[in-house]
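A.,

Following up on our hallway conversation. Structure tokens first:
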């Protein structure tokens, strides 16, 4: 019995250590090429908290409204950070985000 409990605790701790941040990678469909969004890069890499984007910029996949590049260039959606100051700009190198 003790071994079973101990094994369960070890598995639980190990699984949390290797779990991905938040929702993992999310693929956003786009006519200009799909975008692979990494929660890991934005949370761990950039030091953002989940609440920075959720529930301000993004609520969930069902309520999220699509935003065109022209709106992003004015600071909407990804453009709120990807403005050339906080992070690389949404203007210019499309291949940084869009993959064909």
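Then the amino acids I'd put at each of the 100 positions:
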């Amino acid at each position: 019995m003790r071994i079973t409990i101990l094994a369960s605790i070890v598995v639980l701790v190990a699984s949390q250590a290797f779990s991905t941040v938040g929702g993992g990678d999310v693929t956003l469909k786009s006519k200009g090429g799909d975008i692979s969004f990494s929660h890991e890069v934005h949370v761990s890499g950039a030091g953002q908290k989940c609440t920075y984007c959720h529930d301000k910029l993004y609520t969930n996949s069902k309520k999220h409204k699509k935003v065109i590049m022209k709106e992003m260039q004015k600071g909407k959606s990804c453009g709120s950070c990807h403005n050339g100051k906080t992070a690389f700009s949404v203007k210019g190198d499309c291949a940084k985000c869009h993959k064909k």
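Residues 23-99 form a domain with the Cytochrome C3 fold (CATH 3.90.10.10). Curious whether your intuition agrees with the design.

B.
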